[in-house]
Amino acid sequence: MNGLELEARAENLPKVLAFVDGELEQRDCPMKTQMQIDIAVEELFVNIANYAYHPEIGWASVMVEVLDDPLSVSVTFMDSGEPYDPLAKADPDTTLSAEERQIGGLGIYMVKKSMDEIAYEYKDGQNILTIKKRF
After folding, report:
1. Residue 64: helix, strand or coil by DSSP?
2. Given 16, 105, 117, 120, which is the most exposed site by the fewest CB atoms within 10 A?
3. Could you report the per-residue pLDDT of 102-127, keeping only the tens digit for each?
């Protein structure tokens, strides 16, 4: 498992994506799968940057592990910001028009729909969110 630790700032997103993509490219991840993972990584990292420590700035860790059976990637985000389980919130009602829907929650919903697994735990003062995608 390879990891990256950096300040949880939205401007560090390109570094996070470059790190994750570098790991995926070493394993010949299909482009469609890589794009789905990139969208999920962007959503999750920007959420950490915008909300975990607000208004202060803290650190985030991003770990990538490529697994062989089945061939898949696991990306884990860790921060010691405010405890927050994004999976606890109800999914938005996508049958409603955009005007009728409550604000927020669509990004996490997209992550849930595009990944094969997503898990959250709060342990030892840290938010730990892991996404997994087969390819």
Report:
1. strand
2. 117
3. 555 567 889 999 999 999 999 999 99
